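Deliverable D2.4 — example input (structure tokens):
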């Protein structure tokens, strides 16, 4: 069940305006950010990609251009509204599928995917639930596959530019503030991930952390 401190489950109105919110909070940088992140994921034509917490499907449209017609993408989200939006957005890509599924409970996938993406997902879960997501990713990856986590980096919230600090405090959940202090690499290592690589964005406030199986 979701934590009362989380906001990972969104209603119809929040889903409808999610992309607008992300554009505003990033000062219009969000679409460019996703494009750069997908470039850094080293996705190859024909690969299989799992998107945990796929949201409105914006990430998956970028990824679809990388995998070509012989690859496939599965996006999982717990919001019916998000699933509906993502299906509409990616309707021109027949190899992109979406399913309504909680991502913190045990999943059935075993060594099926080359890359797994969790974009602004982990910070919305309690630590025990984060470990469940990480464990799911490890099992679902093929040997040598890579778990790609785009989320907040470790930083001092009090030193953040005031408009962004206000947006973070009022737009994010309590768990997001705790995530800024989380030893994410340590958590991933505890689930047998290794060979970490990092890419930083927005003056180091966002991080793409890649961990290999």
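Example output (designed residues):
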């Amino acid at each position: 069940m979701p934590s009362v401190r989380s906001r990972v489950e969104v209603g119809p109105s929040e889903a409808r305006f999610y992309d607008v919110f992300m554009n505003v909070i990033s000062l219009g940088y969000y679409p460019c950010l996703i494009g750069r992140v997908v470039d850094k994921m080293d996705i190859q034509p024909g690969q299989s990609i799992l998107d945990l917490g796929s949201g409105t499907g914006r990430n998956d449209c970028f990824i679809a251009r990388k995998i070509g017609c012989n690859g496939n993408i599965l996006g999982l989200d717990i919001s019916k509204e998000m699933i509906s939006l993502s299906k509409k957005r990616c309707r021109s890509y027949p190899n992109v599928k979406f399913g309504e599924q909680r991502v913190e409970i045990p999943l059935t996938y075993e060594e099926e995917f080359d890359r797994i993406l969790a974009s602004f997902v982990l910070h919305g879960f309690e630590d025990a639930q984060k470990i469940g997501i990480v464990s799911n990713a490890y099992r679902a990856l093929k040997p040598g596959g890579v778990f790609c986590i785009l989320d907040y980096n470790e930083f001092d919230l009090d030193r953040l530019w005031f408009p962004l600090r206000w947006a973070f405090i009022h737009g994010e959940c309590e768990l997001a503030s705790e995530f800024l202090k989380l030893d994410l690499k340590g958590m991933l290592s505890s689930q047998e991930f290794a060979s970490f690589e990092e890419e930083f964005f927005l003056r180091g406030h966002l991080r793409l952390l890649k961990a290999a199986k």
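The two ends are 28 Å apart (CA to CA).
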